[in-house]
Design goal:
CATH superfamily of one domain: Catalase core domain
Shape: globular
Distance between the termini: 50 Å
CATH topology of one domain: Catalase HpII,  Chain A, domain 1
Number of helices: 7
Strand content: 15-25%
Structural class: alpha+beta
Helix content: 25-40%
Radius of gyration: 22 Å
Number of strands: 10
Largest sheet: 10 strands, antiparallel
Length: 360
């Protein structure tokens, strides 16, 4: 055995050092406490809580045990990310070094109904989990729309309320959604996009946008506000939706991946100092510098009821060193609501019959 007395000893911390260390611990504890308070709704009894957000999604879409409360219908994918190194001077995250990083992802529809026909909405989503060699993870959720319709959790909640079925008719009030948009002019860019958006025939031909802003942080501590997205490198065009039944997207994806890998370029847009970083309803000017950060390569697909993505909570605030959140209020709300949804669906799995067990 090693004699403890023979080991080198660190000199005791001086008063100033000890004070700084304790202060640092206090800051971390306070931040964690604030996060948990938001999740539990204890900071302000009148504040919109994550459970309230998830409850209104359930009222609009029904409760489907074991499934996500939003983006319920999806399919798992797996592959890797290969960095170009272009983003490494902006961020210390290992994912941007010139190495391969394993990725587990999930394509999905933006609906709380896992049985919705693929052509029912024009929006497609892609969530990704990058697992670095040091064990740290980067999780991100992206959508095919360029902007979000609203900029705050409260407005999102009100938007969901406007879509609630009327108990008397079982259908939403036809005047509620137009009235909501009339009261929210910030939704105009989204409405302009949705007017011309059409359901595409394939997940593989879509561009997926991160929408929310984040910060890249380099080894010197310099911060750069960014948004990211992935652009398909396939030569296929985004065809109009064909008449292929309710589940053509997964069928198409399985067929494509059986023939070879699918690739997207990860683009990171650098903000100027006056670009909004806390409002997902606003785009940035098209002349902003864009980094080609690397290539997302998807190699295989898996059914969502038993694939790797099933048990992943794609929380956008799970970030590695070198990537930090912005002050966009939607980020904290998404993180907390995802946690509420995750706890519900994982708690329901054991109650399902064996032939229905699913935890997408």
């Amino acid at each position: 055995m090693v004699d403890p007395s023979s080991l080198p000893r660190r000199p005791p911390l001086g008063g100033a050092q000890l004070t700084l260390r304790l202060a640092g611990i206090a800051v971390i504890v306070a931040a964690l406490g604030g996060a948990f308070a938001y999740v539990n709704g204890t900071l302000d009894p009148q504040r919109l809580t994550p459970d309230a957000l998830v409850n209104v999604l359930e009222k609009n879409n029904g409760v489907h045990p074991g499934f996500r409360r939003n983006h319920s219908k999806g399919v798992c994918v797996a592959g890797y990310f290969e960095s170009t190194g272009e983003a490494s001077s902006y961020s210390s995250a290992q994912v941007f070094a010139s190495t391969r990083t394993p990725v587990v992802g999930r394509f999905a529809l933006p609906s709380g109904n896992p049985y919705a026909p693929d052509g029912s909405v024009p929006i497609r989503s892609l969530a990704l989990r990058f697992t670095q060699a040091n064990g740290q993870q980067w999780r991100t959720g992206m959508n095919s729309m360029p902007v979000f319709p609203v900029g705050t959790p409260e407005a999102f909640y009100q938007f969901q309320q406007a879509q609630l079925p009327d108990p008397a008719t079982g259908k939403p009030n036809p005047t509620a959604v137009p009235a909501f948009f009339a009261a929210h002019p910030e939704a105009m860019p989204f409405l302009q996009w949705i007017k011309t958006a059409r359901p595409s025939a394939s997940y593989a031909t879509e561009t997926y946008n991160g929408i929310n802003a984040f910060y890249l942080v380099n080894p010197a501590g310099q911060r750069q506000a960014v948004r990211w997205g992935v652009v398909p490198l396939s030569q296929d065009s985004a065809d109009a939706m064909p008449a292929q039944g309710a589940d053509f997207l997964e069928q198409d994806l399985v067929k494509r991946l059986a023939a070879g890998t699918l690739r997207w370029q990860l683009n990171i847009t650098l903000a100027h100092p006056d670009d909004p970083v806390n409002d997902a309803t606003k785009t940035w000017p098209s002349d902003r510098k864009v980094l080609n950060a690397g290539t997302l390569v998807l190699e295989r697909t898996q059914a969502q009821d038993n694939g790797e993505c099933r048990d992943i909570n794609y929380d956008p605030l799970i970030l590695p060193n070198g990537i930090e959140r912005s002050d966009d209020p939607l980020l904290a709300a998404r993180s907390a609501a995802y946690a509420s949804s995750y706890l519900r669906r994982t708690g329901e799995v054991s109650q399902l019959p064996a032939n229905q067990e699913s935890r997408p």
